[in-house]
Amino acid sequence: MSAGSTMNVIMDVDTGVDDAMALAMAVASPEIDLVGVTTVAGNVSLVQATSNTLRVLDYLEASRIPVYRGMSRPLSRDHFDAVHFHGTDGLGGAPIPVSHRSQEPMTAPEFIVQTARESNGDLNLVCVGPLTNLAVALSLEPDLPRLVSRLVIMGGAFTVAGNATPWAEFNIAVDPEAARIVADSDLNATWIGLDVTHQTSLYRDEWDKITDDSGPAGTLVREVCRYSFTERGDQNMHLHDPLAVGVLLQPGLVTSEAGPVMVDTSLSSSAGMARLIRSEGGQNSAEVALSVRSTEFRSLFGGLLGVPIHDHESG
Ligand code: RIB
Ligand code: CA
Questions:
Q1: Residue to probe by mutation, ligand 1, list 171, 195, 238, most atoms within 8 Å of CB
Q2: I need a surface site. Which of 22, 126, 182, 307 has the fewest CB within 10 A?
């Protein structure tokens, strides 16, 4: 990417609290042209995720960005949500006005395929929810890997415990079959799992310092995190989805290992477990992030969103 040019990006989201902050980063970054946002059932229902995405983009004064509704349930399993963490509305009860615009008539997978064909290799995908939409898009267009420049996935727990089960991270646990289709494809994927996102937090004392004149992005962060910091008393908020956007912008934020990713699609308790099969390049070779420059990422996050970040031990 030459200086001054922008990256064409589609974000696939299940808007939720951290999805909202990731959207704010993409909207704020001068290096990203967010050509559209696709929604999927995950943290909350598809209808709620779509409504939340429209609300967040409007609140960020980005109503120009179209939203496309995707799959309302995983490929073959029952959907389970994460409202216990994100609140029943998925945005921590943030007082963000309801949007008066609707999603586009085209479905999310169709939009991904159409945009990829039109961009002819100049399209970047950031997937921060279950991978159902992307799996369907691959079925619609098997040539998608050739048409997509980069794919960054927030998903997996490769060397650490999961957060949906002891083995599986939520996005992969909700739809293991979709994740396996993506992992088995030739998409040039970078996987951002809990291995690194658990090292990148926003802390309560930083949240306390977000002022009223922080602008829409900073105020959005303050309002969507309020439930977690004040109702639940959390002392930090893992910036899972924002890190995926950070890695798209600055790939050097993480150190990765290459190899095929294996996803457990059994019906056992380890369903959704993702593992790196260490090898060099070759078929279905992905990059799995295993360490992160947390201070640099948090500085990027704070700089883009107007959130006061200061030194913390574990980043
Ligand atoms: O495990 C964290 C991931 O699951 C994040 O993308 C969060 O928004 C949920 O979708
Ligand atoms: Ca998400």
A1: 171
A2: 307
pLDDT of 314 > 60? The answer is no
Q: Domain coordinates of the chain in residue numbers?
A: 7-305
Rounded Cα distance between 133 and 41, Å, is 9
The overall pTM is greater than 0.90: yes
Name, in order, each residue with C-beta under 8 angstroms of 94's C-beta and a sequence gap of 6 or more.
20, 220, 223, 224, 226, 227
| pLDDT value for 315 | 46
- Assess whether the C-beta atom of 272 lies below 6 angstroms from ligand 1: no
Helices of type H across 34-175: 46-59, 83-86, 108-119, 132-140, 144-147, 170-174
The answer, yes or no, to whether any atom of ligand 1 lies below 6 A from the CB of 81, is no
Helices marked H in 125-235: 132-140, 144-147, 170-174, 176-184, 194-197, 204-207, 215-226
- 102-160: per-residue pLDDT in tens? 999 999 999 999 999 999 789 999 999 999 999 999 999 999 999 999 999 999 999 99
Judge whether 240 counts as a catalytic residue. yes
Q: How far apart are CA 100 and CA 37, in angstroms?
A: 17
- What is the model's pLDDT at position 67? 99
Q: Which ligand is nearest to the CA of 192?
A: 1
Asked: is 7-305 a CATH 3.90.245.10 domain? The reply is yes
| CA 95 / ligand 1 centre spacing (Å) | 21
